[in-house]
């Protein structure tokens, strides 16, 4: 991911991925070309630094029997971002279990994940929410005896 051109150009770096793939730590460097009109971090870079990870982590833990998609996102800007910023994205066992339980009958499920982007003083710069969609692929859904075809 550190060689992916959109991340390189934006100053985004993956600093750590846990062995169990439940935690990803990313940073955003303050570069002259990733600042906005007023000299703070460009909002698109703040969003991009958190964008793919929840979906990828959920995909990893659910496995190939599931469709997993980013369904929506929201970013709330709290204070101007300056300097190097950090975000730690985490998923927990109970969240994965919740998704599996909600989708075991073949239904879709949407789960909201949230992460704070912070500066070096641990102040929250923005809060990002990602809505992740999960559903068993058709060939793995339980047979519905009541369905008329």
Verbal overview:
With 149 residues, the protein is of the alpha+beta class. It has a single domain, classed as Thiol Ester Dehydrase, Chain A, CATH 3.10.129. Helix content is 22%, strand content 36%. It is built from 4 helices and 6 strands; from the N terminus they run αββααββαββ. Strands 1-2-4-5-6-3 form a 6-stranded antiparallel beta sheet. The chain starts with a helix and ends in a 13-residue tail after the last strand. The model has no long low-confidence stretch (mean pLDDT 91).
The count of DSSP E runs of length 2 or more, i.e. the number of strands, is 6
Strand order of the largest sheet: 1-2-4-5-6-3
Q: What is the CATH class name?
A: Alpha Beta
CATH architecture: Roll
Beta-strand portion reads 35-45%
Fraction of residues in helix: 10-25%
How many domain regions?
A: 1
Give the averaged pLDDT, no decimals: 91
Q: Total number of helical segments?
A: 4
Structural class of the helices, strands and pairings? Answer: alpha+beta
| Shape summary | elongated
Measured distance between first and last alpha carbons: 44 Å
Unreliable segments of 5+ consecutive residues? none
- The helix/strand order is HEEHHEEHEE
CATH superfamily: Hotdog Thioesterase
Radius of gyration of CA atoms, rounded to a whole number: 18 Å
Largest sheet: 6 strands, antiparallel
Q: What do we call the CATH topology? A: Thiol Ester Dehydrase, Chain A
Features:
single chain, 149 residues, alpha+beta, Thiol Ester Dehydrase, Chain A, six-stranded antiparallel sheet, 4 helices
Brief write-up:
The chain is an alpha+beta fold and 149 residues long. It has helices at residues 5-10, 43-48, 53-62, 93-103; strands at residues 12-17, 23-28, 66-77, 85-90, 109-118, 124-136.
């Amino acid at each position: 991911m550190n060689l992916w051109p959109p991340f390189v150009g934006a100053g985004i770096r993956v600093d750590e991925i846990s062995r169990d793939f439940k935690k990803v730590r990313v940073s955003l460097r303050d570069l002259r070309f990733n600042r906005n009109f007023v000299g703070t971090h460009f909002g698109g870079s703040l969003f991009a630094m958190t964008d793919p990870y929840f979906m990828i982590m959920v995909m990893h833990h659910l496995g190939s029997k599931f469709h997993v998609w980013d369904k929506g996102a929201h970013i709330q800007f709290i204070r101007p971002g300056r300097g190097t910023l950090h975000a730690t994205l985490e998923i927990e066992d109970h969240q994965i279990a919740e998704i599996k339980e909600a989708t075991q009958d073949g239904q879709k499920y949407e789960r909201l994940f949230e992460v704070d982007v912070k500066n070096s003083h641990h102040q929250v710069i923005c809060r990002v929410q990602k809505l992740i969609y999960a559903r068993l692929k058709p060939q793995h859904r339980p047979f519905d005896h009541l369905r008329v075809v």
